[in-house]
Fold these 2 entries.
Entry 1:
Amino acid sequence: MQCDVCKKKPATIFLTQIIGGKVQKVNLCEPCSKEKGVADPTGFALTDLLLGVGSSDEVASPVGGNKCPACGFSQAELKKTGRLGCSECYETFAEALESLLRGMHKGLEHHGKIPARAFQAHQREVQLRDLRKGLEDAVAEENYEAAADLRDQLKQLELGLEQER
Amino acid sequence: MNIDDLIHRTGEWLQEKGPQHHIVISSRIRFARNLREQPFPGWAKKAQRIEVLDQIKARVDQLEPMANGLSEKLQDLSALERQVLVERHLISREHAAKGQGSAVVMSGDQSLSIMINEEDHLRMQAIRPGLQLDEAFKALDEIDTTLESELDFAFSPNLGYLTACPTNVGTGMRASAMLHLPALVLTEQMNPVIQAVNKIGLAVRGLYGEGTEAMGNLFQISNQTTLGESEKTIIDRLTKVVKQVIEHEGNARQNMIDRQRNTVFDQVGRAYGVLSNAYSINSKEALNLLSLVRLGIDLGFFDASHRLTIDKLLIDTQPAHLQRESKKKLAADARDTMRATSIRTRIELLGTPDYSKLPPPDQASDSPVDPENQSS
């Protein structure tokens, strides 16, 4: 079997990745596997290898030409300056920012200091995030009992939030 | 306090002796904060910037450490005065270029400084001598907590503190340590060290931060990422790495003592010779030679009490400081002459290098060389 990347040397490394139920396979020779950093499986994404690094970032945003409703800053300006116009821009350009932030930082979730006035809201947000994640995991593991329990908790929390509003 | 008083006083933090002061000059923590519902300074109209400035400055001026400090709008400072603040690392080069709508507020001892309307509405920094990142963080965290009770900071539960540049979002924190690494440079080990530090997501920069040259064997190590980890995690990692670099520098010094004794004598001796006899010297050469004399102090060739003399010279011989001192704008060659004079008169106080203080090679130990620690 030939290496899928150089198409020359025989493949000695066989990778299988399952994402969302889809199975993807790739066969590599040793030099190519090293070059692509496959030795470190955590830092390796199959789609990046197959489609080129960052290709998933290229999905065009439908709001591409949009301006931030709060300050009028445009995505073109973001691209040009690498800066944002106001704090609302993080919402407006969330899609474009996600891939940018992913490449820059060690995750997409804040784990540091929280200002006192944002603390309560933040706690609920974290709680919701954890419950949703737990629910997803429980469903994936086919642990329906736990999933039902988590779903009820989630409903209750969301109901509480709505009542506050 | 006015700008003249401030310039006249060397940063008091510099006079204290911090932990690991023979290698770590200073530790610095910076937070970026913005007000909710106000455009960031780079995108705001002048009137909006002034509104934000007035709102923030009124609060910042009331902070307790600022009671005997300096508080000036940028347009009220001359270009030279701003440059002096840059050379002291109290404001950024970018901030020095700002005009109306920006301000700077700092404590009298210069250990705390706040820029208003730099790239973000608020850029605040705390600085401590030696390796004291935790202490600097604690001090700044307190200030931040006081301010947030009165100012509504832009914060998102998911992304943390929202900043003008996405590279700062999250904690909005930059932690950095200024290191003096002459032995690693002399033994040509600095590049591998930089690469290793970069690999773990930390940045190594020159004396004045981003994109500046490493002069005087001075390097800043700082975090690159601000989102996804807590302040403590970031500071702990940085502290760990700085300690490793200190150990490398210590080993490199010991190695030079063991194997390249004459090189050490020669380098320090020549630096001392030039500095005590030069009548014209540019800023870069001065920094590089002062660095070697500082190494000589660390190795015991000069009395340890003179380290402060050298550290002060590192700042006082910068171009804006010299021009401020002479009260007029000086051309480059006039500055070089003045710099040489200033150095000559102060280097005299050190006396000639006494190489007998150096431990003989056979007593070599693994510990980093710091004569003060050894004698205690």
Entry 2:
Amino acid sequence: MRPMRVLVAMSGGVDSSVAAARLLAEGHNVTGVTLKLWGGESDSGCCSVADVEDARRVAAQLGIPHYTFNFADDFTATVVEPYVGAHAAGLTPNPCVECNRSIKFGRLLERAEATGFDALATGHHARVIATPAGFELARGRDGGKDQSYVLYMLAEADLARLRLPVGEMTKADVRAEAAALGLRTAEKAESMEVCFITRGGRERFLAERGVMRAGAVVDPAGRVLGHHDGAARFTIGQRRGLGMAAGERRYVLDVDPAAGAVTVGPFEALLRDEVRVGGLTFVADAPPRATEPLLVQVRAHATPVEGRLDGEVVRFARPQPRVAPGQVVALYRGETLLGGGLAV
Amino acid sequence: MPYLDHAATTPLRPEALEAMLPFLQGSFGNPSGQHAAARAAKTAIEEAREQVAAALGAKPAEIVFTGGGTEADNLAIKGAARSARDRGSGDGVVTTAIEHHAVLHSCDRLARDGFRVTKVGVDAGGVVDLDALAAALDDRTTVVSVMLANNEVGTVQPLAAVTALVAEGAPRAVFHTDAVQAAAWLDVAAGAAGAALIAVSAHKFGGPKGVGALVVRQGARLVPVIDGGGQERDLRSGTHNVAGIVGMAAALTATVARRGEEVPRVAARRDRLAAGVAGRLPDGAVRSNGDPARKLVNNCHLAFPGVEAEALLLLLDRDGVCASAGSSCASGAIEPSHVLAAMGLPVDLARSSVRLTVGWPTTEAEVDEAVAVITAGVERLAGRAGRVPARG
């Protein structure tokens, strides 16, 4: 393989640490970068000083240069503010997806190209596969850790410049390799939460930004069943945390942020035959045929279900719980990501 | 490998290393003791104190050794403000918007403790606004802190005018100056003649890191920031950094002795650098930050419109050129410069600005290599930076 100049996005976690180590072992000219995206001096959440330090130490151990890029203003404008706005509008946003779209595979990929890197690498669990027809993105080897869903916006031209070295590995393999290399991140816990929300959780974060408006919990006929302290606390399909007395199981059917009303009802009322998808993009820049049976994934770790894409509408083979507007709808052919968009 | 970050730190002068070695090897005594080993260390420190005092235009008894420039600034500002408040003579603290964070954050701490803090603005060249300064002063002002020269753009402040205003508008105030950047290039004794407190840092003029000094003129009253065994006339407790102090004195003495020869040479290197970069780029592709008539001789601060400094620094580092931009936070990320913001530079130009600072070891060959690398990097990045592409 021709040695390439590769920029590795190092979060300070084990996956990107091993990604850098693997590229280096393959003989590439590797540079590490950690993104400062949020916050000032706080030592929690993303881009914390401790995480940057872990990335820097791993880079030093590998003997590669390491930089910190400050994309905090872009992150606020393209990830945090839209996240708050989406909640205010009653949507269910996925900020990691917006960060991938605008920051990692937007701003950072552009920076990598401008500074003469042949490729950008991350520690995502997904696989870039070269085929005669072009580059494809497939699910990661470790089904439980697959992250192709949050990469649905990548186009083939992006994949041509992207390396995902741990996509072929299971998480256990990654940790074992990190331990074998003596990397300090080998045992590091995974980050699970939205990185810019730290103390106080999502409700407090949204409340501080004025989008936790109290309102009524109503049934489909409009009868008031109770009250809540903020519609942004609820996601369509949610069952737990409704504060309802025992009785029949009820689910969030709809969220009306303008009225502050949260409608709840039985599971059957949640079922839909289709979902409309906005902003559709396709890896190969062309949609699949409307007759092709696809696998449709509507949440980060949901089991894919069968469906077809007809224009901007995904029609499910069997009725499915309503997809919350704002959620990613990703389309697959087997293990291969075709593209996706956001539920309307 | 062109090193153009001498304002961040500069190599140890050979004289400093030579002076330090005995105290890193055989002579290890604690100067506070009562025996031969202690006396040797004590003598070395007192000789160093005389050398530092002579170089800064102070008396030996006016020198307080500290653990660096930041500590000296903290002691000066917090020490003077708290002492004045303890005596009931006032609560006003006045500084400028372009000070080093050692000064600004000390003032912020005082503001949280109930002091009245005013940060005076500067003009487009980075010179303190004297009218605004005068307006900020009153008879309850206890500390005024204006740097001798700025650490980012190198602008030398009109301290004679400042001290005259302070004497008139804030008669009870102690005047402090952060001379950390200036000490390598300017005669501090003359430039800061009107200051009661003067902070310097050894590693900026060829001494070791982690040692500095504060001039505390007779009559200036401070409460300590660090309490303990009462060293340094009770103003800075803690066992002396003997080797560091001796190294600082040797470096400062050498700096003063060589100034007549080094300053014109460094100025010529800096001018060659600035002219070289400008000459190789099209009109409008580079502009200089900071008042050119008031710049430290080693400072070259350039904005490259349309080029992101973060990206440029990466390209420079790849080709062996060390430079800097803005100020670094704990994560190592470059934070937008508060100095450039105070000068009214638009954010995009501030993000396109890099600081290139030459030093006494800088050669013409280094400058020429740096010019080639910098201009190649700028050309590569010009017009390709800054946008978040529309996608999806």
